[in-house]
């Protein structure tokens, strides 16, 4: 079939493009098979199948660009009779285009988007004298999911309208579902140069240093409060002092909910172990959000998330009387909210020791 080599060549070229991008994240390669409801004036079967490949990159906030190539086969109802056999002909479409996309979010989770763009499509029909290359424009709306693998692969689904100028103009609708593959490349490891072995010399007795398992600066033999959280300030006995704030790391929730992720629950178990060794502290659990969305919604979401963390700690043995929970919404940012990295810093949960 003529469609297969046409698609394989552009996909190969796209994967050779540089993976770095000037936008909020690296480039990506999307592969999306689609089914199409074609214009009845094409005189083909109304249902058709095709394949689209797109290379995309971010360039300003939620704005992205995509270069797409696509191809489709439209089964016709025309038959050509000879003395020996009857053949059914196919109608082929090959195209390339450029789209500009706007994402309603920062692509960390489920992200709706819209796009629009222009391009050219080659309509390969019978008889060959009617073959032509025509301009087209298309618009689409769709959604990408959160990452579904450690490689960062996402799912992508969309509905697209395309109008091309073949004959008197054709209007097709396409429904696509496929995958989005990030093209992030890890930095190359620094070259290692083997050093010459040192000369053999007699070694003096090694003095064994006392252990400090939790890294709080107090040796285990003197530490009355082991398992101190990283970054906490302690007294000479290794116990957390009052009037300090500790940001809880790796505490994440399901998108737009107060449900803790499995990774967040594992991280909170370490916090619970630390609090068990700090029996004298009263703690406020403070939830914060970024400034995106409605302020009242963000305030309620931060309160629900703080309550969720408090409930998890109580269910795992921490005295409820020691814990309070408050949500502050977007009121106490620690970074500007006009960049993805700043908003990520502002979405946080803190423990405030009293």
UniProtKB/TrEMBL annotation:
One of its GO terms (biological process) is monoatomic ion transport. Residues 328-354 are annotated as: Disordered. It is a multi-pass membrane protein. GO terms for molecular function: calcium ion binding; porin activity. GO terms for cellular component: cell outer membrane; pore complex. Residues 240-354 form the OmpA-like domain. Residues 1-21 form the signal peptide. It is found in: Cell outer membrane. The keyword Amino-acid biosynthesis does not apply. Its main location: membrane. This is OmpA-OmpF porin, OOP family.
């Amino acid at each position: 079939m003529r469609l297969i080599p046409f698609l394989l060549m552009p996909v190969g070229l796209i994967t050779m493009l540089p993976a770095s991008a000037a936008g909020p994240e690296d480039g990506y390669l999307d592969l999306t098979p689609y089914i199409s409801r074609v214009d009845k004036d094409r005189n083909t079967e109304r249902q058709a199948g095709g394949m689209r490949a797109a290379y995309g990159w971010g360039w300003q906030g939620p704005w992205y660009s995509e270069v797409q190539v696509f191809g489709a086969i439209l089964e016709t109802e025309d038959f050509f009779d000879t003395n020996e056999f009857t053949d059914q002909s196919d109608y082929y479409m090959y195209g390339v285009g450029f789209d500009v996309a706007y994402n309603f979010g920062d692509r960390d989770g489920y992200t709706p988007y819209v796009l629009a763009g222009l391009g050219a499509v080659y309509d390969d029909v019978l008889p060959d004298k009617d073959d032509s290359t025509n301009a087209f424009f298309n618009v689409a709306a769709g959604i990408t999911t959160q990452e579904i693998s450690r490689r960062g692969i996402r799912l992508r689904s969309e509905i697209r309208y395309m109008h091309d100028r073949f004959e008197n103009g054709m209007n097709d609708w396409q429904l696509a579902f496929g995958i989005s593959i990030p093209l992030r490349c890890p930095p190359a490891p620094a070259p290692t140069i083997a050093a010459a072995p040192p000369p053999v010399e007699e070694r003096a007795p090694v003095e064994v240093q006392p252990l400090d398992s939790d890294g709080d600066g107090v040796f285990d033999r003197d530490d009355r409060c082991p398992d101190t959280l990283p970054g906490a300030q302690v007294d000479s006995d290794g116990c957390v002092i009052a009037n300090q704030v500790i940001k809880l790391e790796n505490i994440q929730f399901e998108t737009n909910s107060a449900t803790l992720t499995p990774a967040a629950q594992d991280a909170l178990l370490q916090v619970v172990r630390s609090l068990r060794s700090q029996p004298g502290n009263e703690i406020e659990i403070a939830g914060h959000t970024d400034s995106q969305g409605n302020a009242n919604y963000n305030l309620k979401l931060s309160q629900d998330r703080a309550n969720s963390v408090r409930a998890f700690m109580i269910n795992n043995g921490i005295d409820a009387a020691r814990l309070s929970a408050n949500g502050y919404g977007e009121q106490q940012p620690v970074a500007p909210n006009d960049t993805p990295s700043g908003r990520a810093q502002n979405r946080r949960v803190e423990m405030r020791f009293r």
